[in-house]
């Protein structure tokens, strides 16, 4: 928090021309969200930032996640997110969407905040 007060994170919005986080935001922020941060911890950071309404941290962590999953196949992504199948059954799709409603709400809020900036 102290670093953010001293050097506010660079504002950013898609589309991005690089997957190098250090070229999108200052290197300190890139290191903060990637050094020693695995997929599980990054997922927890996203949830916490969303719950606590810490928009700069939410934006940074979602950006890091999007870079991490960009270009990966469904077969690679399924175990990362604990998905066991393709969800071909509409009942399963509805259940998963309901269970992850918070993620859709977070995305909606993120997009609203982006539009306001």
Give the key terms.
117 residues; mainly alpha; globular
Layout of helices and strands, plus pairs?
Layout: H1 2-6, H2 21-24, H3 27-34, H4 39-51, H5 55-69, H6 74-81, H7 90-99, H8 101-116
Average pLDDT? 88
Number of helices: 8
Count of individual domains: 1
How much helix is in the residues? 55-70%
Integer-rounded radius of gyration:
15 Å
* Contiguous uncertain segments of 5+ residues: none
Give the number of DSSP strands.
0
What percent strand?
under 5%
Tell me, briefly, the overall form: globular
Q: Main sheet, how many strands, which sense, barrel?
A: none
Distance between the termini: 21 Å
Order of helices and strands: HHHHHHHH
Class inferred from helices and paired strands: mainly alpha
Account of the protein in words:
The protein contains eight helices and no strands. It has one domain (2-84). α4 (39-51) packs antiparallel against α5. It is mostly helical.
Compact summary:
The protein has helices spanning 2-6, 21-24, 27-34, 39-51, 55-69, 74-81, 90-99, 101-116. The protein has 117 residues and is mainly α.
